[in-house]
Write a structure and sequence with these properties.
The structure is a homotetramer.
Chain A lengths: L1 E11 L6 H13 L3 E5 L2 E7 H17 L4 E11 L6 H13 L1
Helix pairs in contact in A: 1-2
Chain lengths: ~100, ~100, ~100, ~100
């Protein structure tokens, strides 16, 4: 089962600057070889369910290892069985309609 | 790694009544033997990371099998390494302060 | 327009214990006279759109006044035009089906 | 109070293709003159709290007017009192660290 998620990882108790932790998560996604795209309030990730969620778990593990004792993430999870649709497909579908 | 999540599964393309699908997900959680508590806009679930996320995957699979071709879930994910804290612990901590 | 939301307010840079801030938000909701119900990972709130969102804004203001310089909340927002449905209606609809 | 949100509007009961509704929301944001950036699973929006949330309300109203009788949105809400930080600032902060 393919999945597209949008993930935002928030470490607690480490001050207000979280970019070091976000950067570590980006490296986890790169190392996992997953298609992903960061935006201003999270990251789109797509791939096979098990691979995507293994990377999400690895993000939590890595951020804990960096010293954050508490993490609260929020996530959207999209699956569909009718057809495959990539991140870019979704964006282009709206952009085409906006240009009409 | 223990995890507490809050999950809201939304099937698309099956009309506006989603309680049949929510009920099926509750059964998935019961069958998995996971501690969980439904509220008005989602369900708290706690347990070992792998067991909890296996149940989330099963929810998506079951809802697809029931005929929903598209699902969009939203989830909060909480982990902590400093101490164990159950759903009830969290609620009681606030209720105690509210009563002060 | 009536709305039902599920809100989870997360203060950053104030340590890992957030129950003092959650308690302050519960007081905001009580003072606003809004129907609300706390669970283990957020709070259900229902009412008129403008009143509910005024309370959400007040929560952010109060938590900042308490010393948190950064807040990241997550929220689900439900509206429907076909019929009114309370938090309890939604829960009972699933509980009835579970008992069948 | 400035705010940055990430919004994902999901209309229920209108089939599985939601791009027409997402497009309408993009127009609402354009008409409101709000800085915003669509991604594969939502849209970043930044501005003054009241203006941003007026636009969110307008999105729900417009999608209902288009025929969706039920909507379930998910949103992240970020506020900070220590300094101003734009969507681009946040992204660049991580990109700089990734390149180190």
């Amino acid at each position: 089962m393919k999945v597209m998620i949008d993930l935002c990882v928030i470490p607690l108790g480490v001050g207000t600057s979280v970019s070091t932790y976000v950067t570590a998560c980006q490296r986890v996604l790169q190392d996992a070889g997953l298609s992903h795209q960061m935006h201003g309030y999270g990251t789109n990730i797509e791939g096979e369910w098990d691979e995507v969620f293994a990377a999400v778990k690895r993000c939590h593990e890595v951020v804990h290892e960096m010293g954050a004792v508490r993490i609260s993430s929020s996530m959207r999870i999209g699956t569909r069985t009718d057809r495959e649709q990539s991140i870019d497909d979704k964006i282009n579908s709206v952009k085409t309609k906006l240009a009409e």
